[in-house]
Amino acid sequence: MGNSGWSTTVYNLMHEPKRVWHFHDWARHASMLTGTPTTFFIACAIVIAWTVTGPLFGFSDTWQLVINTGTTIVTFLIVFLLQNTQNRDARSLHLKLDELLRSLKAARNRLIDLESCSDEEIEQVERQFRGLRAREERRQPIATPSRPEARFGARS
Length: 156
Fold this sequence. Notes:
The protein is an all-alpha fold and 156 residues long. 66% of the residues lie in helices and 0% in strands.
């Protein structure tokens, strides 16, 4: 275990006992639940039930208002739940990538926390990577349908 101080800290953070139920826990569970086939079929059943009741209510404005209001409220709330979950997933992914970058000697530490940089700084790094890719392509051609030999590393 090369980075024992860092690894111990991360391990302790990941395995600390749950204290209270947080919003992000609820949001994650709700997000997982909304993404299931069962939830989709329940939503479809609600829409079908609403459609079937149309003739019963004479396709009135109130009948239409029920589905419009219901879907608007659900959409409004789900957006925040999914955004919370997506933000946490993105943060976790960035931290994992930062740890990989930090652990590789050849990696540039400047890339750690890149998401916090300005747009100009990100564009500068992107240009550097495009330049690296172009140099690599000149060195070793990338396989294309017209150049299948490049796929197997054959050099001219």
